[in-house]
Amino acid sequence: MKKVLLIKEIYLDAFKNLGNMLIQRYFKIFSWFCFVMFFVVLYAFIYRIATGFAFD
Q: Taking the domains of the chain in order of start, what are their residue ranges?
């Protein structure tokens, strides 16, 4: 739980003093997109391991 709170604090601090609202929204959307893509890749990797895919 400590790690989740630390990640949340780092995320909030990163966008605190950015300035322009357009840039701030762009980076927030981009960071969420990166999180989602990471979890898609993680899911695909776990799925391949679970189904016995040969990584040759």
A: 2-50
